Amino acid sequence: MRSFDYSPNPARVVFGSGTAKRVRDEVERLGHSRVLLLASPQLDVPAGQVSDVLGDLLVARFDGAAMHTPVEVTEQALDVLREHDADCVVAIGGGSTTGLAKALAVRTGVDQVILPTTYAGSEVTPVLGETEGGRKTTRSAPEILPETVIYDVDFTLGLPLNLSVTSGVNALAHAVEALYSPQANPIVDAMALDAISGIARALPRLREDPWNLDARGDLLRGAWLAGTCLGAVGMALHHKLCHTLGGSFDLPHAETHTVILPHAMAYNAPATRDVMARIAAALGVPDAPSGMYDLIVAAGGPTSLRELGMRETDLSRAAELATAKPYPNPRELTTEGIVALLDDAWHGRRPEAPTSDLTRLTEQVVESFSAAAGTRVATLLTDLVRHLHGFAIDNDLTEGEWMTAIDFLTRTGHITTDTRQEFILLSDTLGVSSVVDLMTNSRTPDTTPSAVLGPFYVEGPPPKAHGSDLAEGLPGLPLWADIKIIDTAGAPVAGAVVDVWQSNEDGFYDVQLPDFDGPVLRARFTTDDRGRFTFWSILPSEYPIPADGPVGQLLDAVGRHPFRAPHVHFMISAPGHQRLVTQLFVNGGAYLDSDTVFGVKDRLIVDFTPQDGPTPDGRELDVPWRLLDFTFRIAKN
Ligand code: NAD
Question: What average pLDDT does range 416-443 have in this prediction?
């Protein structure tokens, strides 16, 4: 459980499109009538609109705000404020103009109405950074917080794309560091994650259309939330580095945030795995730092300190300055660590995520199939490799476990012979055979359902005449089978070749019993003109699959029984028709609910009806017998 204190900052927020029209009302709401407007030449058009709305409330305008709030600029603005006896400042612009409004407020107590035109977030924080004699100092006080913020999305439409991207990432940085702040709390977490996903979705849309009002709205909303996070909890390494690089090396504010953020995240990632996982989810990527880097690249933002004009020789001094005084950060700060971070940022390297070696490896293997790209074999191998690698990674597989798996497969191979197919057993008991079978079924919904082939099919069973006996005198309850094959239109299929095989009364197939010389309980029939054939056999019984090999050990290891429900196998082939491989299960038989190869389908559970009257072919029997009367439906090609 984490403990926290939380006090929301009491700013009034008006958000939407066209909201600048409400600026006069908002000033009057605060009880003021003499406005000093802070703007800049770049924002002359919106400043003109706001002037019009303010009307006679406007007493003066000052356009000189500069980055990092130089005190000498504040002094000039202060003169204008006093000269015109202004009781309220209205500021239109980014963090620089907001900074000037705050600097005036902290000196005079004047109320502020801010109309932000970037995503810096300063308008909702009680923090002011000022520079004097080249030194930047930061302070926080309740009177610094603006009283009212009017977010008018229309005023951000003209923000140039490059500024929009860097300013958007500036906002992302507030949200990211809020999530691992020592003061983090559920409200700030929720705002931060919403800001991250909103901004991450908006930036790529903006690249396609910088005038997209919805994307601009998402960005501005994210900026408000992220700025609120910045105002509510303490920041860490990332903000400290940007502060140092901006203050001591004169690097531009939002651009520096954009270059540093992925690297600060990568530095802190080992100590903030949970937070990084939440950020990755909000970004919709597998890894947060590299995902952030990719987002910036895709949005066209800067990625290196070199391109911002920083000299490589200044990196170690920057690292020393940034680590000179201790401050809270989730991961211990070392000068070598920060030098390495700055070196990566200077070169613009993509952060190496802990999983990125693995990702690269997977991609290398996939790439090795590229000569066969587009073929079925390449498609299947690509997917197999991705799933196998993912399986190893997700389960944190050890070498010992993988060698056990290889030993298991080796033993599965060694035990396999012409009559013992351990790989099919493995496929059956893991349900893979049934997955393939169900997909096969779904392609021909009008036919009798198929079922798995199983491991006991033997090619080329002996042809038998209609009415002959498959059991050849073996003990068991006699079974008379009367089988018809029709197509999906109901027409009989003459000349269909049907292989039939089954277990004996004890549940064994002939290939499992060394005493048998040749095939027993297996035969090949050909249907007559009515699509029909008949034979005598015995009622099959439930049986265990061979459990003396690796598959049996696997079942043991998870407490599973090895039994199959009683059934007879059929393989039906006819010219012009699709082959059907299936099984008929004895209604009322054991293990219908827990067949160990998952092969039972309701439509294949059929009556093997008890009989005690005369037999259909006049065979003399002094015991009860069973009747299997079934019609298979097969599909044309
Ligand atoms: P900025 O305010 O300096 O604006 C950058 C440039 O973009 C300026 O030339 C500006 O005139 C122009 N501009 C702004 N909006 C425009 C628009 N809609 N259309 C066209 N041009 C536009 O940059 P910023 O990144 O918003 O703010 C950076 C400053 O804010 C830094 O001094 C930073 O320290 C401060 N800041 C303070 C806090 C805080 O909480 N105290 C938070 C974030 C930033």
Answer: 90
